[in-house]
Amino acid sequence: MGNQTSSTLTLSTGAPQGCVLSPLLYSLYTSDCMATHGSSKLVKFADNTVVVGLITNNDEKAYLEEVNILSTWCRNNNLSLNITKTKEMIVDYGKKQVRNYSPLLIKGATVERVRNFKYLGVHLTEDLSWTTHINSLVTRAHQRIYHLRRLARFRVSHRVLKAFYTGAVESLLSGSITTWLGVTTAKDRNVLSRMFQHFIPKSSLERAPGNWLNCHLSESECDCDGIIFHLFTSSVLLLGVTTDSHVPPFLEES
Q1: Which whole number is the average pLDDT over 52-57?
Q2: Biggest CA-to-CA distance, the chain
């Protein structure tokens, strides 16, 4: 940095934690780790690896072999699988009969089988529903909205409030949204809608539809589904409003 040069450190294995090159170096190091069966796929993101296997006619052989091959590859390349953090989740489309699947073993240890799992910030469930994920999003969003209200009470500028909302709330709600928004149930959408009512009071919508969103919405689009649609597809900033008071009404303590 500047005229200063850090000392040299030689690493025989691994990569420095926090180094900007570490993810790239790890990806290059594991580039030859690939699925060997046509019914299996390896999904890799940095040091997170998922084995996706298709089981047909109760034949688990290819899937179990794929896991063993991955375990062997890690052992041969000086990498260690964390068995306690490794989970197995089965998505079974068969509803007429209950299938018994063999336990998954890695180095003689049984991998825990779970009904849902959080992967890269997204809650995946065995029935491929998104209720767990949406409930988690709403809970975390409410916590951040509390801090947003506190900032408003300290009379910070609207620019700061908008920046906080965009970085802390909107980024949370819109994460991986193309994956789950289109397949949410009416009940899940209602959960999201109730949270948006913190920002848009019903009386305000009745008095001046569209003004609270600082965008051109028709009256029909100012219902909850319309608000969700415009927030997530057009990145509408709910804090971009015009108000005479320094503290926006929808940020006041309830």
Answers
A1: 89
A2: 71
